[in-house]
Amino acid sequence: MAAVTEEILIEVPVERFYDVIVDYARYPEFVPGIKACRPREERAGIREVEYELDLGIKRIRYLLRHEELRPSRVAWSLVSGELMKVSNGSWELAPEGSRTRARYSVEVHLSKPPLVPQSVIDRVSDELTRVQLPRTLHAFKRRAEEG
């Protein structure tokens, strides 16, 4: 599956929105499907974060490496994980007066476990990118704008 990208305008300054993005421990409070999120030690703008995601058919755990460039960019890539072959993405942020233009990109590829049809894996991968993308964007927007 190719990467999917979408843009949204957030009614808060870029620094405030950036702070919402890097507050990983609070993701289970507002990000759809995230059941647990455990940030690890940060070093020189790099932070590894362990996630637990409910796919509906199964909960999976995975570890992402986040590269943080305050206040304009957060990018991530997969370190390890159950069922995950690829999980890459980024937030690109730009100020527009007192607002933030946010571009969110994500690419997810799942491994095919034995006895699971490829069509099921393709459907779940598609849901993670094309369906969850708008939900995730709007969840972050609500979180930032509501404070």
TrEMBL record:
Domain of life: Bacteria
Residue spans crossing the bilayer: none
Coenzyme Q-binding protein COQ10 START domain location: 10-129
InterPro entries associated with the record: COQ10_START, START-like_dom_sf
Pfam families membership: Polyketide_cyc
Similarity remark: Belongs to the ribosome association toxin RatA family.
Designated name of the protein: Coenzyme Q-binding protein COQ10 START domain-containing protein
